[in-house]
Write a structure and sequence with these properties.
The chain is built from 2 helices and 5 strands. The chain has a domain of 83 residues: OB fold (Dihydrolipoamide Acetyltransferase, E2P). Strand 1 and strand 2 form a beta hairpin. It has a 5-stranded mixed β-barrel with strand order 1-2-3-5-4. By secondary structure, the chain is of the alpha+beta class.
């Protein structure tokens, strides 16, 4: 009787370990970042010294710009000009958006890769 109970305990432990390993590696793969180009202009939000930059697109979507400080400084100098922004949109409701805060605009963040002024 003890051998049968020990055997059942051993099999239960082995099955539990196998299921644990299977669930640890299961699930959906992470979404790949999609690079998009949007056209709009730069707006400055907040008040000194706590300002931040955002994009307002032609279709009235607003994104906070995520970029290096020197890039943000260059963009601020071109405020009001029509610009083509290339980068990744991180929606506000995305659970992986770690940059959500009071400085995040209504449509989320825009991780900027490049930008170019569009001549009129």
């Amino acid at each position: 009787m003890k051998k049968i109970n020990n055997y059942r305990v051993f099999i239960s432990i082995v099955l539990l370990l196998c299921c644990s390993i299977a669930f640890a590696f299961g699930g959906r793969p992470p979404k790949k970042a999609v690079t998009v180009t949007v056209i709009g202009h730069v707006n400055v939000y907040g008040s000194m010294p706590h300002t931040y930059l955002g994009i307002v697109t032609e279709d009235k979507k607003a994104y906070t710009i995520i970029a290096e400080k020197d890039v943000l400084a260059q963009l601020q100098k071109n405020q009001g000009k029509t610009i083509a922004f290339t980068g990744e949109i991180i929606p506000r409701n995305d659970k992986k958006n770690k940059d959500i805060g009071f400085q995040t605009l209504k449509d989320g963040n825009f991780k900027l890769k490049s930008w170019e002024i569009i001549p009129k």
